């Protein structure tokens, strides 16, 4: 088992304990944390495609491009954002970012080498006041 301590800017002692592909994170104040959830574009993209196909010779942009354009702010001129942005929802069953007040910010895809640990974060879950990170080495 690898154990590493991280002192954040509020002098909280964050403890990382890694065993294999699992890292337990403790020492933060749960009431002072932010969480992030991935976006779900299914409904918004379907509605966008339905509108575009109604235009003669209309071809929708690929989903990956839509994911960028639907969030672009252009002084209120982005009709895609205005019409379809409200249809983008969050997958609140999946956590992709965890940020306790004072740090450290942890996100899916992040390399844990910064903390002296191994692997990139694949999942973030909570179990009994601890954050459980699953990593891929």
Write a structural description.
The protein has 3 helices and 10 strands. A 5-stranded antiparallel β-sheet has the order 1-2-3-10-9, with no helix packed on it. Strands 4-7-8 form a 3-stranded antiparallel β-sheet, with no helix packed on it. It has 137 residues and is an alpha+beta fold. The protein folds into 2 domains: 2-37 and 95-136, no CATH class; 39-90, no CATH class. The two termini are 15 Å apart.
Q: How do the strands of the widest beta sheet line up side by side?
A: 1-2-3-10-9
For the terminal residues, how far apart are their CA atoms?
A: 15 Å
| Derived structural class | alpha+beta
Helical proportion, percent range: 10-25%
Output the helix-strand order: EEEEEHHHEEEEE
Overall 3D geometry? Answer: elongated
Radius of gyration: 20 Å
Helix count from the secondary structure assignment: 3
The main pleated sheet reads as: 5 strands, antiparallel
Number of strand elements: 10
Topology:
Layout: E1 2-7, E2 13-19, E3 22-26, E4 33-36, E5 39-40, H1 42-54, H2 63-69, H3 79-84, E6 89-90, E7 97-100, E8 106-107, E9 120-127, E10 130-136
Antiparallel strand pairs: 1-2, 2-3, 3-10, 4-7, 5-6, 7-8, 9-10
């Amino acid at each position: 088992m690898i154990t590493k301590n991280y002192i954040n800017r509020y002098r909280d002692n964050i403890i990382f304990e890694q065993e294999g592909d699992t890292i337990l994170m403790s020492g933060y104040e749960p009431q002072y944390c932010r969480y992030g959830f991935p976006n779900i574009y299914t409904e918004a993209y379907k509605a966008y495609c339905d509108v575009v196909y109604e235009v003669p010779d209309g071809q929708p942009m690929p989903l990956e491009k839509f994911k960028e354009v639907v969030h672009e702010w252009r002084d209120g001129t982005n009709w895609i954002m205005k019409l379809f942005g409200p249809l983008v929802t969050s997958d609140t069953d999946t956590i992709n970012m965890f940020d306790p007040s004072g740090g450290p910010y942890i996100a899916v895809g992040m390399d844990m080498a910064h903390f002296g640990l191994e692997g990139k974060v694949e999942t973030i879950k909570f179990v009994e006041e601890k954050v459980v990170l699953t990593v891929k080495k």
